[in-house]
Amino acid sequence: MRHGMGRWYGAAGHRAGFWITAFTFLISMAFTTVPTPLWAIYQREDGFSTAMVTVAFAAYAVGVVVSLFLAGHLSDRFGRRRVLLPAVVIEVAAAVMFLTSTSLGVLIVARAVTGLGIGMVTATATAYLTDLHTAARPRAGRGRADLVATAANMGGFAVGSLASGVLAQYVDGPLRTPYLVFLGLLVVAAAGVVLVPETVSPVAPRPPYRPQRVSVPAEHRPAYFAAASAAFTTFAVLGLFTSLAPGFVANTLHHPSRALAGLVTFLVFAAAAATQIVLRRLALRPQLATGLVLMCTGLATLTAAVWFPSLAAFLIGGILAGAGAGVLFKATVSRVLTLATPEHRGEALAGLFLTAYVGLAVPILALGLATHYVAIRTALLAFAAALVLICAAVSRRLLR
């Protein structure tokens, strides 16, 4: 494809393409947390209940799960760029939808569309970064690619919530300006993806389409499912801070600032990204153990902060839980990449993200619904206890 306009495709080298892809991954993930500090405004201006907030949030996770199941693995067949570029365009469409209306129906659809794009972005961008890094530095290990991929994932969540909270607090049009800013960034990212060289040749003859399946050697499946269970718990923790946590801060802890709501989420995801960097030289097993301990400790602290209201304890618990979730998720991605064969890397990662995003949707939706029947602190206690039990159940297999 080197004639006409096609000569521009893949014009960047593998090294530049690696960083363009990392930027695209970061901005795409950041866009998903733009609504986080805005939920309180939607509730006040449009009368949304807490349950409706969790439904809108769950619509995103459902979109991700559907996308991962139907399209998250297709980059292994059709090429990384050929999947990543349409995924970013879908995110652009979602941003436009957020700008058209603040009604609940439009928000739910926009969140679902966001999820459809992100389901394609996560597995594709992670595998793309690994491919580009290997092509640019064939003698180097995979460590940098793993680190950048997971840092872009968690760091994107942090950047999106903080930027949105600050814009909502200090700039006119709090329900429009954040989306306008990220619409522009997504357009820039899409233009950049066009320049990234393709790393996968389409399969010929083209095989019949099939939905997602987990492709891991049989002898590694117990370890794979243990890693997937750990990813489930990490995303359940992180989902708490992109859905209901700002409400806890505003209502239970009585701190209604939009900027503070964005800052809380930023600190959690910044801790997740920072821990990945600080502990990157640890062997895989110590990373997994550290992640489990930090996340469980953070959940306990967070629960105590709601039972005995304390903003400081809530922030400390959030930082600990976020740090643990970050390093644990990075370690699970590394574990899955180690277990999967190169030709099935996209499928294995899509399966991991599929399980993770089920964790993002189901526990949070259950928590939101539970608040209608029991006190918030009781619902949070049950939520935290369930996640700790899952971690305990898989820890032996995970650390083996």
UniProtKB/TrEMBL annotation:
Taxonomic lineage from the root: Bacteria, Bacillati, Actinomycetota, Actinomycetes, Streptosporangiales
InterPro entries, A to Z: MFS (IPR011701), MFS_dom (IPR020846), MFS_trans_sf (IPR036259), MFS_Transporters (IPR050171)
SUPFAM superfamilies cross-referenced by the UniProt entry: MFS general substrate transporter
Record's bilayer topology term: Multi-pass membrane protein
PROSITE patterns: MFS (PS50850)
Protein name per the record: MFS transporter
Subcellular location as annotated: Cell membrane
Keyword NAD annotated: no
Main location as per UniProt: membrane
Domain Major facilitator superfamily (MFS) profile residue range list: 16-400
Keyword line: Cell membrane, Membrane, Transmembrane, Transmembrane helix, Transport
Superkingdom assignment: Bacteria
Residue spans crossing the bilayer: 20-42, 48-71, 83-102, 108-130, 151-171, 177-196, 223-248, 260-279, 288-308, 314-337, 349-369, 375-394
